Structures are given as C-alpha cells and as structure tokens.
# Entry
Amino acid sequence: MVVEFKSLLTKMDSMKKELDCIKENMVQRDEIMTLNEFEAYKESLDKDNLISFADAKKQLGF
# Structure
C-alpha cells in the first residue's frame, strides 16, 4: 500500500510539472501576431514613425 501511494505521488508530481510547464509556455490564440501584423509592427518602429516621450506626453495631454 505504501509503495502504491508513493507511486501515485510520483505520478501526480510529474503531472503537476507538466501542467506548470504548459501554463508558463502556452499563450492565448488572440495573443499571437499574424505575419501581416508583425510586418506592420516592424514598420511602426521606423525612425520616421517615432516621437519623443515629451511629444507623446503633450499629444496625450499629460
């Protein structure tokens, strides 16, 4: 009985580790960018599209 209990605990620990890994590494489908979204993101980082922090604060009214 004790051996079976230890075996069960070992299996449960293994399952917990797998679930923790899944929780840590999985993402929601809507969090993933499409290739088009990623290209648009990269283009948005172009120097011509960037403004200073001070200008951003002014535009936002801070």
The chain has a mean pLDDT of 89. The radius of gyration is 24 Å.
